[in-house]
Amino acid sequence: MTILYVATNANRLKAIEVNSDTGEFVRTVQDIDPIVRSRKHQTPLTPGDIENNNDHHNSPPSRIDTNNDKEKSFLFEWLTSHLNFGMPTTEWIERHPTFDSLLYVFTSFGSKRSAVVTTYRILGIGNNNGNNEDDSEKNKHIRGQLKKLGSVETQGLHVAHVAFSPDYSTLSIKAKPPSTLCVGHYLDGSLSFFDCSQDCALGEPQKIVVLPEIRPETRRKTLPNPLPSIHHVTYNPRGRIPSSCNDSDDEGDSCNYLLVSETSKQGRVWTYNVDSIGLPISSQPASFLKVTFITPPSGWFARLVTGSWVAGLADYRIRRCAVHPNGLYAYLLLEFNCVIQVYEIQPETGRISGDCLQEIPTIDPNKVIGLAVHGSAELHATDTEIFVLNRGLNPFPTGSWAESDVRVFSIENNGAKLVPKTTIACAGRACHFLALPRDQSYPTQLFVGSDMGRQFENVEEQTSASIETFVRSNAEEAGGTFERVGIANVGMDRITCIAALS
């Protein structure tokens, strides 16, 4: 059995058990609603407050007054429900890579107040690293349930992504815990750094860094285009380049750099030099890559929407950035352009070369029909494959079509070239996916979340958001393709993030 931790855009976290073989829903393990209680009369943090590590939010928590909800405009309600800004929303979930029973849950409040990280203990699996599962009847009954250890503000606005130092997705033997957890924020372009070396709840951030402005006096924290704006953070790969991550003496993380992907019109991937445990040496980045596109968004409606309503962000919107486990190549995912760009990167410094080696589409541009918008949302890289989640928005089912799937690419030439391998068709607007195992090894299982009301093949319209389970149906020699084995309704309208206890 597999327990999935599913977040939604309503400050809610749900743990469900699914059958690992069939993907069918078994039971609800726990439903936490709300994760964080909202506060009245919040004063948003200013850039100066963030840089000086000031906190305006010391009043005790209270329930938010919802009496005025009916007075909000239809547009406001649509934006907050579909874009998750303004209202409490659980944006990210991450398990600790070494302390298996620690789960970090990040709740955002748009520009109203700082985001909050809540640390939970996963019960029934042991508290330390390694496989410490207790098969007693008592632990089987509580296995997967969450016990809250504490909450703390991230001191940034709207969490977009988090990363451990260095990149623990490339570590096979996770014997020593990482020292630092980096949290990137979307609405104010800030980075918060937490000490995560202990088997306990996270404390206050150790350090706060804010992305620079290319042009002075352009900083803003308003939609649709905040500036600066972070959507992805990642440290250098671990354990492949001796000069960058040598843990043979077991003295520490030995980090070299941190990559920060920006989605604002500044359109850059920033490189920060970091110390051995992952904290920035300077508040200013050491280098950057100014990104541009070769291929414009596919479809007239997508170009219209991204060129006007999103104020041209499609030209620069770097959704994700991943580094090949060998440390030699970086992969940038441009969201509305639906392409992956491949660059060389210096493994010791993290400086990305200015020449794009390859730009490859993540969708079929010839199949964009009518009033549809495509967005490539997630990127997961292994030694031999890259997985990309395409999130198609199709508001008018008749006469239009948007691609929602997971595309798999083979990696060739030691990481320098991507080749299309297979397409995993999903039902409706896919929101998030999780590949297991989440390291450089060969993923054998995918969990893909999609919104309520989507049509599944040979299945009636879903009454809640659902998770599709895909497994490898054959060996790599026979193609290594995936097939859907089951669908589990989660009892929520939307899915924003998934974590797993397998």
UniProtKB/TrEMBL annotation:
Sample GO molecular function, one term: 6-phosphogluconolactonase activity
Matching entries from InterPro entries are given as: Cycloisomerase_2, Haem_d1_sf, Lactonase_7-beta_prop, WD40/YVTN_repeat-like_dom_sf
Q: Which domain of life is it from?
A: Eukaryota
Task: Give me the ranges of the annotated region Disordered.
Answer: 37-68
One of its Pfam families is Lactonase
Which PANTHER family does this entry report, sorted A to Z?
A: 6-PHOSPHOGLUCONOLACTONASE (PTHR30344:SF1), 6-PHOSPHOGLUCONOLACTONASE-RELATED (PTHR30344)
Q: According to its UniProt record, which protein family does this protein belong to? A: Belongs to the cycloisomerase 2 family.
Q: What is this protein called?
A: Uncharacterized protein
State the organism of origin: Pseudo-nitzschia multistriata
